[in-house]
Amino acid sequence: MDFQELQKLLVANALNYGEKYNVKIDEDFAILKLYEELGEFSQAMLIHRRKSRPEKHLPEELSKEEVAKELADVLGMTIVTANLLGIDLEKALNKKWIHKDS
Fold it and tell me: If pLDDT is split at 50, 70 and 90, which confidence band does 100 have?
């Protein structure tokens, strides 16, 4: 699957979420949701690194799976946000990370 296809599927998923829960998926929603997902990722990392209350600790593999899920949410909402802002994220990533000197 190429990046554009992935973006299309993620945006469709977000729009379906909006329809299902009667939530307008706009720039404000996407940016605030991205912050929420970053917080959940941070919490998962604290648990994974055992820097949380002991009752929250999980077995290594389970905590790693939780980190992966939350990181996927961060990436997904980043892509949705870029789409709503009219940003070609693939082009921006290529310019910023791959061909920095170009």
Answer: confident
pLDDT digits (tens, 9 = 90+) for 2-29: 999 999 999 999 999 999 999 999 999 9
Cα–Cα distance, 100 to 96 (Å, whole number): 5
Nearest by Cα to 41 from 49, 6, 16, 91: 49
Whole-structure pTM value: 0.91
- The domains located in the chain, with CATH, are 3-98 (1.10.287.1080)
Nearest partner of 41 among 73, 70, 79, 65, judged by Cα: 70
Q: Which residues touch 78 (CB under 8 Å, ≥6 apart)?
A: 34, 89
